[in-house]
Amino acid sequence: MEDKYLKLVTPKGIAQYPWLTKADTKFTPEGVYKVDLQLEAEEAKPLQDKLQKLYKEHFPKGSGRMPYKNDDAGNVVFKFKTKKKPTLFDASGQPMLGDVSVYGGSKMKVSATAGPYNAAGNNGITLYLNAVQIIELVQGNNGNDVSSFGFTVEDGYKHENSGETDFIEESETTDEEDF
User: Fold this and answer.
1) pTM for the full model?
2) Residue 64: phi, psi to the nearest 5?
3) Distance (Å, whole) CA 122 – CA 62
4) Following CA atoms 141, 151, 168, 176 in sequence, which dihedral angle do they give, to the nearest 10 degrees?
5) Alpha-carbon distance 42 to 53, whole Å?
6) Would you tell me how many other CB atoms lie within 10 Å of the CB of residue 141?
7) C-alpha angle with apex 15: 14 to 17, nearest 5 degrees?
8) Average pLDDT, whole number, for the chain?
């Protein structure tokens, strides 16, 4: 049996659901850093072959879970995760310091370690996220851009903001008749 772990670097792919600078605590209180990486099927094949080989070395008779799936468009989506905050690099290889919001749609490469697991009768391969190289960064706009809702800019009425909020504050007393 060869080494239990396999270090790898992916080709360029498209990030889906990245949690790279802040841990996702929705299902794990201590948090998990993660990203799904979409690769075209042709580019994914060598990586899939390496993971299949690693799986067969550790589980020669079994069938278990692999850290990737095919999407509806014929691409392959790999799942990476870690408890330790991954290092981020820009396209030139410089570390990205400070808070950088990385959104889905960013083009990136992922450095990871693949390893087998066998827990409660389930077995498979996990991809542990080590570092990410951001090739093209996509950042969000917190929903404050007309295009985030599917609109385009049109000629017509233009509102001048006064700096005041347009939100109505809740009254301190609530009558059931108000509902």
Assistant:
1) 0.76
2) -140, -160
3) 10
4) -120
5) 18
6) 10
7) 150
8) 85
Would you mind telling me the total number of residues written for the chain in this entry? 179
C-alpha to C-alpha distance for 56 and 123, rounded to whole angstroms: 11
Across 64-84, average pLDDT: 96
| Residue of 77, 11, 111 whose CA lies nearest to 66 | 77
**φ and ψ at residue 169, rounded to 5 degrees:** -75, 145
Q: Print the SS3 string covering the chain.
A: CCCCCEEEECCCEEEEEEEEEEEECCCCCCCEEEEEEEECHHHHHHHHHHHHHHHHHHCCCCCCECCEEECCCCCEEEEEEECCCCEEECCCCCECCCCCCCCCCCEEEEEEEEEEEEECCEEEEEEEEEEEEEEECCCCCCCCCHHHHCCCCCCCCCCCCCCCCCCCCCCCCCCHHHC
Nearest to 110 by CA among 125, 93, 88: 88
- HSE-up of 26 (CA within 13 Å, CB side)? 4
- Location of structure tokens 């404050």: 144
Q: Which residues contact 45 (CB under 8 A, 6 or more apart)?
A: none
